[in-house]
Specification:
Blueprint: H1 6-16, E1 32-36, E2 39-42, E3 47-50, H2 53-56, H3 65-77, H4 88-100, E4 108-112, H5 115-130, E5 134-138, H6 147-152, E6 169-172, H7 191-209, E7 214-220, H8 235-246, E8 249-253, E9 277-280, E10 292-296, H9 298-302, H10 319-334, H11 337-358, E11 362-368, E12 371-379, E13 384-385, H12 394-405, E14 408-409, E15 411-413, E16 416-419, H13 427-445
Parallel strand pairs: 3-14, 5-6, 5-7, 7-8, 8-9
Antiparallel strand pairs: 1-2, 2-3, 4-10, 9-10, 11-12, 12-13, 12-16, 15-16
Helix pairs in contact: 3-10, 4-10, 7-8, 11-13, 12-13
This protein binds pyridoxal-5'-phosphate.
Length: 448
């Protein structure tokens, strides 16, 4: 389509592209040429099995013609309309998103460009609705890289920009059983008591901060890059109850955990919880086009009936992105991908468990649906991580390189390896990836 030889892509990119999250001199990108299903190919025609859905976002898999066609038709019919107008695809997409929210309870939808600005807008809505300022989020969280979303982020990605971020965010601890600060001396505590301890901790913070000052509690329903932390039974219901008790808006960030990833449309459904606001992106279009959304209960929207919501985006409800969302949701329904992810959950769990049994460097494995993680440690007893907090290590780098060399694309973060493949993946394809991982872990085993 464009007149640039394959062998010039990399050199030209190195000269002119400025990369995010990277020291520019150290960037060594894969020059991707095409992608189909669970695979993509680089310009040398090397094939990679995609165990990370690119950026945990290509939920329906690569190159689905139904989505591509819908986008082509939309761009031919109407590529853009102003934010204050409406279009056929805007009407349809907002209805379809509302329909997949838990109990169809979040009936109004504000479209954004991605996950960070979805969270920014959710925070504004919560503040406008309550007239309060503070937002509570967890330490092991990522909510995006714009100033407000970065402030909300609990993990070290926020540190480079402090203190010039949005004010009013208070962080609290995550119910992370494997490394629970509260339970080092009683690791066998029941799930119910464990959840309650973390809810007590949250309520204590609410009290210290003053409930009358807290607009929202923003949490990832299942924590993503900070460790695929699956909330214990009772925890999400408990957060909902605390929000109700203190009139705080409950915001579920389902940017990564939504759209079938966990075997439900949204992860909160596992605990039958209805948040006041859900933010989403990634799987909403399976990344065929950039799009985020904020779905809210009618009472949140009603708070802005008589006065304006003072915010906006030139590209809100971009028709081509919305066409991708509509087609993507249709594909997920037609191909029963949410159901498939639910079925594949135990399959992935078995493979993770086998991996853990075979390799002494595996400290713990976890998954919910097709959202999985391997925690690598130097010592199972002390749980010393294979790379330090917010750092890397030769072993983790070697593991990642081995996988890439052998055609397995997966995301490693600190001492963890994440398994987040497209939802269309089959047992055979999972096995193929695990065979590479199994060999790669011989590297980390040597450090035990
Ligand atoms: C849970 C969560 N929230 C928000 C975001 C930010 O989304 P975006 O990169 O589309 O701004 C991410 C991105 O990885 C995420 O994982």
């Amino acid at each position: 389509m464009f007149d640039l030889p394959d062998d010039e892509i990399l050199s030209l990119s190195k000269e002119h592209v400025f990369y995010t999250w990277s020291a520019q001199a150290k960037v060594n990108p894969i020059a991707v040429k095409r992608a189909k299903g669970v695979h993509f190919w680089d310009v040398d025609d090397k094939r990679y099995l995609d165990f990370n859905s690119m950026t945990m976002c290509v939920n329906i898999g690569h190159g689905d013609e139904r989505v591509i066609k819908a986008m082509q038709e939309q761009v031919a019919e109407l590529p853009y309309a102003a934010p204050g107008m409406t279009t056929r695809v805007r009407a349809l997409a907002s209805k379809m998103v509302a329909d997949v929210t838990p109990h169809q309870a979040l009936t109004r939808v504000l479209f954004t460009l991605g996950g960070a600005d979805a969270n920014e807008n959710a925070i504004k809505l919560a503040r406008g609705y309550t007239g309060r300022h503070k937002i509570l989020t967890r330490y092991r969280s990522y909510h995006g890289a714009t100033a407000g979303a970065m402030a909300a982020t609990g993990d070290p990605r926020r540190l480079a920009w402090e203190p010039n971020l949005m004010s009013g965010v208070v962080h609290f601890l995550d119910p992370y059983r494997y490394r629970s600060t509260f339970h080092r001396t009683n690791p066998d505590i029941s799930e119910q008591d464990f959840a309650q301890d973390y809810l007590n901790h949250l309520e204590e913070i609410i009290q210290y901060e003053g409930p009358q000052t807290i607009a929202g509690i923003l949490i990832e329903s299942v924590t993503g890059t900070n460790g695929v932390i699956i909330p214990p039974q009772g925890y999400m219901q408990g957060v909902r109850a605390l929000c109700d008790k203190y009139d705080i808006v409950m915001i579920a960030d389902e940017v990564m955990s939504g759209f079938g990833r966990t075997g439900k449309w949204f992860a909160v459904e596992h605990w039958d919880v209805i948040p006041d606001i859900i933010t989403m992106a990634k799987g909403l279009t399976s990344a065929y086009a950039p799009l985020g959304a904020v779905a809210m209960k009618p009472q949140i929207a009603a708070a802005f009936s008589e006065h304006a919501f003072e915010s906006g985006l030139t590209y809100t409800s971009h028709p081509v992105s919305l066409a991708a969302a509509v087609a993507n949701i249709n594909v997920m329904r037609e191909d029963k991908l949410v159901e498939h992810a639910a079925v594949m959950g135990p399959v992935l769990n078995r493979m993770l468990t086998d991996l853990g049994e075979a390799h002494p460097s595996v400290g713990e494995v976890r998954n919910i649906g097709l959202f999985g993680i391997v925690e690598l440690v130097k010592d199972r007893k002390t749980k010393e991580p294979m790379a330090p907090w917010n750092g890397s290590s030769p072993e983790m780098n070697a593991l990642k390189n081995y996988c890439l060399d052998n055609g397995l694309y997966l995301y490693t973060h600190w001492h963890t390896a994440l398994i987040i493949p497209p939802l269309i993946i089959t047992e055979e394809q999972l096995k193929e990836g695990f065979a590479v991982l199994d060999k790669a872990l011989e590297i980390t085993d040597k450090a035990v």
